[in-house]
Amino acid sequence: MRLYSIFFCLFFALQAEAQHEYLDHPVDIIHYEVSLELEDTTDEIKGYELITFKLDAPCDSFFIDLASVNEGKGMTMYPELLIDFEKTNYRHEDDRIWVQTNPKWEVGSIHELKMFYHGVPETGLIIGQNKFGNRTFFGDNWPNRAHHWFACVDHPSDKATIKYSVVAPTHYQCIATGTFISRQLVDDGKKMKYDYATSIDLPTKVMVIGVANFFYDLYKPDPGFDVSAWVYPENKEEGWSDMQVSVEVLDYFMDILGPYPFEKLANVQSTTQFGGMENAGNIFYDEEAVTGEGTMEALIAHEIAHQWFGNSASEEDWPHLWLSEGFATYLTDLYFEQKYGREAMNERLIGERIRVLKFAENYKHPVVDTEYEDLMHLLNPNSYQKGAWFLHMLREEIGDSSFFTGIRKYYEAYQYDNANTEDFRQIMEEVSGSQLSKFFEQWLHRPGHPVVLFETIERKGRTVLRMQQMQDEEAFQFDLEVEVIYEDDSRETVVLHAHGANANYAFEAGGKKIKGFIYDPNVKLLFEQVEY
């Protein structure tokens, strides 16, 4: 390896935790072909991989993520790594393969990298037993654990297509990302080889396989795509019953968002490390969620919403995770609104508000969080519930017509692509004709929320309702609806306009006596009420 190349690799190693190292990566992955062999007698996997990539910028080296061996877990490379059928110098350490480039390559040129590896995955591909004691293999990649079982650029900004070829003992069935291509007996009939492929660019977080003993059936054969259930045979009736609501959920989201973006929708009972996951076209649901009692509806709605937001239109980088999780959470609220009514959605929003307020007691970070210590820390109420509340308040700010038009336009603009919060803001401003910089800044880029104290003051024969913001952070700007209840049980709704730390509303002298107030009766504002 040339000296300059060594320095290049060291530079990137020192920058391993930098926010933009993936965004500045000098190669773009176009396609993965991943061939895996799974066994019953060992947790070791064997992998062969062909990666097609494009050179985006001049460089002496680039990296591919692949877990190194640590305490018996991780992947060991076979000696040769080939690019364009020629042996290439590389170094595999610290969970990365550093690959030397050819000085003759031109920017924009396309190349193929071939490698072999074997090892026991520490995570990412979860090998173990399901709740019925049967052996299973499930991809569980979020956020960046795909590289524990196949070589990849493990970041949502680098999308690619993928083909999986999976060889496993014949008593298993295999589900994987993409369209089913074929299956055939191999190894003298002892094993079955399954091929799946997708022509749609995806982030690695949602590229998976699932290998188990499944019961499989279709809900709705469709000229465009199939909706199916893949559940353990021991509770196939429960799984079939619980997952059939996915057809109704799909119909709703296709109506408000546009066509379903993938080749199929397989609802898969799974045994993974962290629970259910919205993998593209084959959603993995935690095995314990399947009960036959119809309790999966919200979970199913959330994961199906991700097919549009998170899987197709993906966040550019991790601090913008709310564009995935906040959207899926609020779209689930909207599904409940259209099916069960506004009160049902309000109940969900109130519960989500409680979670946000409780979380904020100990976590003083904004929704767009650039100072997280661990990617897993982003799986929190800021990304989910506060992101959903932001969308709910944005809907109130610009109106239903602009909101739903903007959501569709944002999705259309970034379908199969990546976006950040600024991209979303620009589209919502364009659609609504509103200047939304302050709105986005105070709810997404600042920590905290309005903490308000209410009091009534009698002044010169008038009743004055005073609202004071008590949070340590600077004052928020918002409108708060207040329902006034009079002693004769008549009611009216007034609006407090908060443009600073205090806001007042004066009721005219000689008016009816006030019995009480209901703050935010229609559940439109994320705020916390405190008392003396």
Could you give the topology of this structure?
Layout: H1 3-14, E1 27-37, E2 45-55, E3 61-65, E4 74-77, E5 82-83, E6 86-87, E7 90-93, E8 96-100, E9 110-120, E10 125-129, E11 135-139, E12 160-169, E13 173-176, E14 179-186, E15 191-202, E16 209-212, E17 215-220, E18 226-231, H2 236-243, H3 246-257, E19 264-270, E20 282-286, H4 297-308, E21 313-315, H5 322-340, H6 342-360, H7 382-398, H8 400-414, E22 417-419, H9 421-432, H10 437-445, E23 451-459, E24 462-469, E25 478-486, E26 491-498, E27 502-507, E28 514-519, E29 528-530
Parallel strand pairs: 1-12, 18-19, 19-20, 21-22, 23-29
Antiparallel strand pairs: 1-2, 2-9, 3-8, 4-9, 5-6, 5-9, 7-8, 10-11, 11-16, 12-15, 13-16, 14-15, 17-18, 23-24, 24-27, 25-26, 25-28
Helix pairs in contact: 3-4, 4-5, 5-6, 5-7, 6-7, 7-8, 8-9
Query: What is the helical fraction, as a range of percent?
Result: 25-40%
Dominant shape: elongated
CATH topology of the largest domain: Immunoglobulin-like
Q: Largest beta sheet, briefly?
A: 9 strands, mixed
H/I helix tally: 10
Give an overview of the whole structure.
By secondary structure, the protein is α+β, with helices and mostly antiparallel strands. It has 4 domains: 211 residues, tricorn interacting facor f3 domain (Immunoglobulin-like), CATH 2.60.40; 83 residues, 2-Layer Sandwich (Zincin-like); 132 residues, Neutral Protease Domain 2 (Neutral Protease, domain 2, Orthogonal Bundle), CATH 1.10.390; 80 residues, Aminopeptidase N, middle-beta domain (Immunoglobulin-like), CATH 2.60.40.1840. The chain is built from 10 helices and 29 strands. Strand 1 and strand 2 form a beta hairpin. It is elongated, with a radius of gyration of 26 Å.
